[in-house]
Hints:
Blueprint: E1 2-3, H1 19-29, E2 42-46, H2 50-53, H3 59-66, E3 71-75, H4 81-92, E4 96-98, H5 103-114, E5 119-121, H6 132-139, H7 143-149, H8 158-164, H9 173-186, E6 191-195, H10 205-223, E7 227-229, H11 242-251, E8 255-259, H12 265-276, E9 281-286, H13 293-296, E10 301-303, H14 309-323
Parallel strand pairs: 1-2, 2-3, 4-5, 6-7, 6-8, 8-9, 9-10
Amino acid sequence: MIPVDREPVRGDGEKICFDWLVWEGVHAAFTTRPPEAPGPFIIAVQHHKSEDQVPAEQWELWEALRASPAVQIESAAQWNMASKRMEVAARTGDILIALGGAEGVDYLANLYHDAGKPVVPLDLPITGPNAGARKLFAFGQSPKNAARLFRSKGDMPPHSWLSRIQHTRRQTADALASGLTDLLEALAPPRAFGVRLLNPNHPHFDAVEAHFETVVRPVIEDELGYELTVIDGSQPFEHSRIDQEIFTKLHRSRVVLADITGSRPNCFIELGYALGRQLPTMVMGLEGAELPFDITTISGLMWKAAGPVKERRTAFRNHWIAIKNRPPIVPVEPLIP
């Protein structure tokens, strides 16, 4: 997500922002992008003055970018451009890498964190030690706080990763870039939260268990790149109470897979929370299950307990593709647009 704006300079003529340098790099990288890569490569955020403020020496570049299918253009409101730009970034971005900034970085980091997305701050000495990315980096020196910034795979915890990428005067730019790349590759996948029947004494438990392990998990994890999380008491706890464990992880999941087979009250509570939070939510249930009226109005996947696994995975995948961008039940609209 890159702004389309003017190119301010300091009193000595040096640039303050580097958006157009980034755009030049993006344009040069078009030729190396795999043709089968899904979605836009870059989102350009413009406002009502963008066309007048694009530097004359960048007009040709901007016209080439506008014409490319790899560039998706979004427009932000006129009077609150900065906050709208950050909202677009948090909604469409996957990871926030903070390099400098001031109060706006705090706001943007909170948006990413609330959406369950990683925040990776760098402590480059381009701002004061108590501002922007450097403030976030200092916050992450505590193991507890670092774990709130991002989750990592393997044996190295988040605070150790931050120490590894900490800036030193002897460090080259290539070394910093290499360490950051290693960290990005070590980030835990985005979380897909599973809401489902967990009582092993229920007559439909075995069918639900088989559905999640043979259909849901292979598609969600192996194909779509999520980490399926189901709170059943067998995993390490991060919170003292199981209800806090459930709703904290549900709150910051990227998608929710809600199977309401068995009509368990806790499943409906968690489904309602996910819908109210406006998370991408897929509703499922065993074919033939009796559903409450409010659930029948939401397009869901009524899956079969038998049949070829390949066909069942295809049905699950196709339904996810159809509903993953479904709008919320009640759109949140500002009082003043």
